[in-house]
Amino acid sequence: MHKKARLGWMGGKDGALPFDTVQGGGAIALLVESPKAPSFLDKLQVRLMYNSKDTLMFRLHIYGYDSINRIPGNELLSQEIILKEHKRFGWLRFDLSRYNLWVPEKRFFIGFEWIDDRQTRNSMLKGLQDWERWKKEQFQLGNEKVENITGQTMNGEGGYYKYHGNMMHWPGFTKLPPFTGLMIETGKHSATVALQTLERKTSFGKWYEIQSTLNAVITVSY
Prior knowledge:
Blueprint: E1 4-9, E2 27-33, E3 39-51, E4 56-66, E5 71-75, E6 81-85, E7 90-95, E8 102-103, E9 107-114, H1 118-140, E10 146-149, E11 160-163, E12 180-182, E13 184-186, E14 197-200, E15 208-210, E16 212-214, E17 216-221
Antiparallel strand pairs: 1-17, 2-9, 2-14, 3-7, 3-8, 3-12, 3-17, 4-5, 4-6, 4-9, 10-11, 13-16, 14-15
């Protein structure tokens, strides 16, 4: 092993990720490409938007690339890896070298799955529905901080409402259960167009590409 490469994206300051649903298994995945295969997974970084849990937890996934459907393919990990941290904001850093993980493909997805109990998922789902209604109402009332995004697709649906401000300023924020949100950069440009970001709402749900880029970086050796 003589060379290392850092794969992924660190830019962007907005775009709170939609969270888990009542069914469980909500996840997000970022496509990266290593200079050479196989490669050894050394370090992982992912950026928090906000965390209000005492201990945040994500189940790590490494998926192969389904080039026909352009979505995450087979799970490449043979062991369960749970990422735990206590931070509220900023970058999380994890040492993957102790797991001795080798990826046989140049292109692969880094996936993060939320881990919550059913009660938390129910409360979060209701809260996010209220959040979406509030943004729509504010847009109709002329709130300049709310934009109606059309012509893009999120979660397999049509347009949506984007709030250009801190979600904590929403009156219903304090009613949300403790949660963990990850940072994404909204929109695509020449530097991020190849870094596909997809999400699913349940463990066996369909993957949908979102027009954003997850803030995550993985260091590989080859």
